[in-house]
Amino acid sequence: MIRNGRRVLVHPDRVHQMFNRMREDLHALSFRHACEVADLRRELDEVRGLYAQLRAAVLARQNAEQELHQLYREREIQRARVIERDPATRLQ
């Protein structure tokens, strides 16, 4: 087949078919990527939720440790107040 004085190597209908197939492939690839991104976002949200729970547990533990330390300190102060000091001993 000759067109505009040139020999046609690939028929225009064949070119249109190839482009349509490539467009379909790109749409399918785009859909797969969108699904993968959605899956990754869900997984990231789950990890963020687990991280928030872990952080809350760590903060609760730290607060409990601080409170316990304060209670021990107050207990020692109360014990020290109860014990009568010997006036003959040196103060440190």
Description:
With 92 residues, the chain is mostly helical. The chain has one domain (10-81). The protein starts with a strand and ends in a 10-residue tail after the last helix. The relative contact order is 0.04. The model has no long low-confidence stretch (mean pLDDT 91). It has one helix spanning 12-82, and strands at residues 2-3, 6-7. It contains one helix and two strands; from the N terminus they run ββα. β1 and β2 form a beta hairpin. Strands 1-2 form a two-stranded antiparallel ribbon.
Summary tags:
single chain, 92 residues, mainly alpha, two-stranded antiparallel sheet, 1 helix, 2 strands, rod-shaped
Give the secondary structure arrangement, pairings included.
Elements: E1 2-3, E2 6-7, H1 12-82
Antiparallel strand pairs: 1-2
SS-derived structural category: mainly alpha
Put simply, the count of helices is 1
Q: Catalogue the unreliable spans.
A: none
Tell me the quaternary state.
single chain
- Give the ordered list of helices and strands: EEH
> Biggest sheet, strands in spatial order?
1-2
List how many beta strands DSSP finds: 2
Q: State the end-to-end CA separation.
A: 112 Å
Shape: rod-shaped
Rg calc? 39 Å
Measured as a percent range, the helix fraction is over 70%
Mean pLDDT: 91
